[in-house]
Amino acid sequence: MPTSLHIDSLNTIEGRHLVLIYATVFLIQGGYFLYVAINWFKLRKRL
Amino acid sequence: MAQSHSSAAPFSRLPVVFGLIWLAATLAILIHGFRWALMISPTDAEQGNIGRALYYHVPHSIWALLFPYVNLIASIAYLSLRKSHPTKALIADAWALASAEVTVVYATICLVTGSLWGRASWGIWWAWDARMTSMLLLWLLYVAYLMVRRLSSTGQTNTVAAVLSVFAAIDVPIVYMSIRWWRTQHPQPVFFGAPDSGLDASMKPAFNWNLLGFFMWGVFILVLRYALERRRQLVEQDAIQSALDIALGDTPHLSSLPEAHNAY
Question: Domain extents for chain A?
Fold first, then answer.
């Protein structure tokens, strides 16, 4: 069994789900950060 | 006015500089944690590579149970200060809103990543066991809290939301204890569980770096969201004051605008 993740192992159900899990985290955290940042600059324009 | 503004400028930059340093440190730790999770940490002997989901799922689940307490403390502060110190109550209310949103973000990630992990490991997306159901309930409670705040048009919205948040916080210890009180599909406690529970030493660096990284990220977005809400409150107050001044035939009140710039 390899000690680290190999790119070939992503071509399985487990591998694809692992990619989805990491992508979900980046999308939700990044999306919320963008939402706050956009509203920050919108409000700044009103000042 | 201009003099006081310029003298205050160097101090107002301090939180921004500190925030940027905090963000840089957070991103460095998250990148380091990502490298450990996927490239350095060994493959789990029982689960295979899907076990690497643990490094993101568990930190989010842990912090999803921390931010509701920020919301609870802020809501209690709002309820106790709203009549005697309305300005301080508004600060508490901004913390309550920010922490509720961050709770929803972390709980959403916990539920989605857990479901993806469950499908790959158990062959099912969801099980109505005590841990998952109580976590879903927690998510629903804080979504309901945010919906009340956004959609209710009564003058008591913030008070109603604060009371709701006190009830919502009761679910947090139930989520934590669910895998100890009941037999569940969800794995038994890894931390503070049975004598043979715990992480293998080779997996601890990946877990600990991500635990720290997502805590620092959570604090960063919490403070950023708080600062945004304080700005919004001050702009709203200023608009009300200006409208009152116009109605009374006075010059529009603009003195709070510099405060709004330094709201954080």
Answer: 7-46
Write a three-state SS string for chain B: CHHHHHHHHHHHHHHHHHHHHHHHHHHHHHHHHHHHHHHHCCCECCCEHHHHHHHHHHHHHHHCCCHHHHHHHHHHHHHHHCCCCHHHHHHHHHHHHHHHHHHHHHHHHHHHHHHHHHHHHCCCCCCCCHHHHHHHHHHHHHHHHHHHHHHCCCCCHHHHHHHHHHHHHCHHHHHHHHHHHCCCCCCCCCCCCCCCCCCCHHHHHHHHHHHHHHHHHHHHHHHHHHHHHHHHHHHHHHHHHHHHHHHCCCCCCCCCHHHHHCCC
Minimum-distance CB partner of A47 among B50, B109, B257:
B257
Q: What is the pLDDT of residue B260?
A: 47
pLDDT tier, B194 (very low <50, low <70, confident <90, very high otherwise): low
Residues of chain B found within 8 Å of residue A46, distances taken between Cβ atoms? 235
pTM over 0.90: no
Q: Give the mean pLDDT of B190-213.
A: 83
Per-domain boundaries in chain B: 21-229
Its ipTM equals: 0.88
Q: How far is B224 from chain A (nearest CA, A)?
A: 8
Q: Is A7 on the interface with B (CB under 8 A)?
A: no
CB contact under 8 A, B42 and A3: yes
